[in-house]
């Protein structure tokens, strides 16, 4: 972690979750300003919140200022978070401020990073060993999260099977080769006369490098945002 407490760039996820923030003027407990804005980045324990130009910004946007955050759209089950500003950031990319995620909510955010699951289709290849010999099976994803993938193939697996899966979610991302453990495998509801043996398999990623998890979670957040905008 850097001296400022911000994770390395490849550990920061770019998202645009809408929220409402209330900033409290230092030394004036009854004076505040409320703005609708978005989260821009999320790390393990901090959020970067975008903010437009506001009056008294030199007073409000400084370390130690109290902030209340209300999450809009998603995260409706999450109550308001009360935290404080760590530092102000203004550059060519974003104008905003970093806040600490309270310890009581960090586990929630870490799980949310991992378990945002989106419907998405792309080719996959499964590599596993039968009687000491590797086999390669082609398949197609159904949905993806930072913690696992669900896919179709013409192969039956057993819960607990350890396999490797390779895929490229789109051309902006590298080819991932990840180890996983089969959670379940069942006959596919998408079977056709041409694919009577098709199965659906849920795979949990195991021993995945953190940088790969960050990339997958970032992909899922961006896809979810694209799908959300498309439905509007």
Structure, described:
This protein is of the alpha+beta class and 232 residues long. The chain folds into two domains: 105 residues, predicted glycosyltransferase like domains (Thrombin, subunit H); 114 residues, predicted glycosyltransferase like domains (Thrombin, subunit H, Beta Barrel), CATH 2.40.10. Helices cover 17% and strands 43% of the residues. The chain contains three helices and 14 strands. A six-stranded antiparallel β-barrel has the order 2-3-4-7-6-5. The chain has a six-stranded antiparallel barrel with strand order 9-10-11-14-13-12. A hairpin with a 7-residue loop joins strand 2 and strand 3. The two termini are 38 Å apart.
Roughly how many Å apart are the termini? 38 Å
The helix-and-strand class reads alpha+beta
Portion of residues in beta strands equals 35-45%
Looking across the biggest beta sheet, what order are the strands in? 2-3-4-7-6-5
| C-alpha geometry | elongated
Report the sheet with the most strands, covering strand number, pairing sense and barrel closure: 6 strands, antiparallel, barrel
The counted number of beta strands is 14
Q: Provide the domain count.
A: 2
